[in-house]
Amino acid sequence: MTDPDFELLDISLYTEEPDRRVVSLRAGDAPETPEIPEGAVLSVGLTFRLGREIEGVAFEDSRVREGTVLATVRTVLGGFRTGGPYEVRLPQERLPVGRAHRGVYELTGRFTAGDGRELAVVHRRIRVVCQPAAHKRWAGTTMAPGPGQPLSGTPGETLTS
Q: Helix or strand or coil: residue 136?
């Protein structure tokens, strides 16, 4: 059940890397399952309007993959007066890279008031897909030595101070 005094106008994913784009997650605008490349830097943008003043508005983001809850993050947005529209951009994050992280994710966004009342709930899906450039970025990185290898120098070389 949603609160009649809370109107969600837009919820979108903003990607910064590897390219800039906006993926709308509104029911009428979004494709069934938008594709986001692995390793992308993204943030969630929220736009809403209020019919009355609401204190302690929070947004809770839950991510589920193959029936397992991977993360739930609660962000307190603050108190808002009657009116709007209010636009809030959540902190950026980088999606993980690798075959194990690709696939379909179920996203649930839940807005609550400071007194615990549920204001609105949004359910969407995204698909994290392969991005070959993400793997090339890490390919040239020098790996740390293994437990049986010296920290520097050539094998068998004695280090002096």
A: helix
